[in-house]
Amino acid sequence: MNNRRQLLQGAAAAGLIGLGLPGRAQTRVETLRIIVGFPPGGTTDAFARRIGDKLRGSYANTVIVDNKPGAGGQVGVTTLKNSPADGTHILYTPASMLTIFPHSFARLPYAPGDVLPVGLGHASDHAFVVGPAVPDSVRNLKDFIEWAKANPGKATIGNPGSGSMPHLLAGRLSMLGGFQVTNVPFAGSGPAIPQVLGGQLAGMSSPLGDWVQHHKAGKVRVLATSGPERSPYTPEVATYREQGQGELVIREWFGFFAPAGTSDATREALNAALRSAMAQQDVREFVTPLAGHIEAGTVAEHTRRLAADSEMGRRLVSALGFKADS
Q1: Which structural domains are found in the chain, ordered by start?
Q2: Which of 43, 151, 262, 287 is 20 to 30 A distant from 293 in Cα terms?
Q3: What is the pTM of this model?
Q4: Cα-atom radius of gyration of the chain, to the nearest Å?
Q5: Where are the extended beta strands (E) located within the chain?
């Protein structure tokens, strides 16, 4: 009995009990709630559910994906802010809620410090696309800029939401290229895609995954991608940087966050569980149709990425003079 008690005391002191380490039957928490600030069925929700399936039985006995849509993802962040900081609640969200919104909204129901990075999830490049409303001779950004200058008012460019990263990228491109663009925001990419395909819009700035199949079928032309290097899904398409727009380099990521006050040990345990889940082949294959890839990393890497992209968001918002409340 004394040996057993000493063994348990030693394990507790080492922080092993309840951390859900490999090979232990005991899980760290009874229920993990993954908050998603968007409705069921979208990319963010689908990925969160796939990861939740992998965490069930390892990190937690029960995993619930809790959809809290509203205000472009703000409700999800606010819900996490008000959740217990004990490893039972995490948020999966696009970066923009924390890298752009704090700079573009005069008022938010949360501050960036109300949540803490836990780990990266998946990421994808954005694309600048044109459809049949733009002459077939337009094959790159230089061609498009020349066409837009020669045809004032015709450069109508859709985006998946006012203040989103694709919106800011297109707006900044127009400033740097010296041409007029009419930004047309939509509630997500879905409603805009048919208008580009049908020629009602000249083009669109949105995630590359929206366009890969249409591009390969010749229905649209992807003129540029936003990553630091060419996307493996469209290797024939030059990046913004390669086409002289080195300021417009961004790979938008989705990340996991915990409430402020969550201990470092808890965040590290969550990070280890998430990275183990994302290392599984079916999870990696899941993001292929989205033209995305897994970017799982450490807590420290997520923290650095958040800071760097928040600074880029600040520069873009400042350069455009954009205010989401206006």
Answers
A1: 2-123+252-320 (3.40.190.150), 125-243 (3.40.190.10)
A2: 262
A3: 0.78
A4: 22
A5: 29-36, 60-67, 89-94, 115-130, 156-159, 182-185, 203-207, 221-225, 251-259, 292-294
